[in-house]
Specification:
- The protein is α+β, with helices and mostly antiparallel strands.
- The chain has a single domain, classed as Winged helix-like DNA-binding domain superfamily/Winged helix DNA-binding domain (Arc Repressor Mutant, subunit A).
- 34% of the residues lie in helices and 13% in strands.
- The chain contains 6 helices and 6 strands; from the N terminus they run αβααβααββββα.
- The strands form 2 sheets. It has a 4-stranded mixed β-sheet. The protein has a two-stranded antiparallel sheet with strand order 1-5.
- Strand 3 (89-94) and strand 4 (97-102) form a beta hairpin.
- Helix 2 packs across helix 3 (38-50).
- Mean pLDDT is 77; it is low at 1-13 and 114-120.
Length: 173
């Protein structure tokens, strides 16, 4: 049976939504991973830090991971390969993007009954270096605006002449 909306609300309102839980059985393996590949351990830690409250998934590119870790793309690729082979995470392709789902048996943030939703939602991390040139300036520009008529307003077609103002149309303060 799926979780109800009240169960989701309880997990977020409990005051513990900023905590990540770790299955004690995985701690020894995590230490071994840190010795085997410090970069893989760092990437795993990053995914755990950024995964959503009710999910264990993060969409993130290799370029972003190279910026975060400060290592080469090849090093990131080797680290991700280790994480997949050692079953710390699963990689799910979404077109050209990849969603990384952290092993929900080892790490989770929401109540246990919400772990099954990990592959359906994700935190998306986008790096500025991967965007089009000038994207920051473009982001400052207003997007096209479609006007909406509020209940207190009336639409006047462009061809129609406006009637003279009525006193009730004037704000006299």
């Amino acid at each position: 049976m799926g979780s109800t909306l009240s169960e989701v609300d309880e997990s977020q309102d409990s005051g513990n939504f900023n905590f990540v839980q770790v299955n004690r059985a995985y701690l020894r393996d995590w230490r071994a991973l840190t010795r085997k590949s410090p970069i893989a351990s760092e990437i795993l830690m990053y995914f755990i830090e950024t995964m959503g409250r009710t999910t264990n998934a993060v969409v993130c590119s290799y370029t972003t991971l190279t910026e975060i870790t400060g290592v080469s793309r090849a090093s990131v690729a080797r680290a991700v390969k280790i994480l997949k082979e050692d079953r710390w995470l699963e990689a799910i392709k979404i077109g050209n993007a990849t969603a990384y789902c952290v092993n929900a048996s080892a790490f989770w943030q929401a109540s246990r009954n919400q772990k099954k939703y990990a592959i359906f939602q994700a935190t998306v991390v986008a790096s500025s270096s991967e965007q089009e040139r000038g994207f920051l300036e473009k982001a400052q520009q207003r997007l096209r605006h479609i006007p909406f008529i509020e209940n207190s307003e009336r639409a006047i077609p462009a061809e129609e002449d406006l009637p003279p103002p009525d006193q009730k149309d004037l704000e006299l303060d």
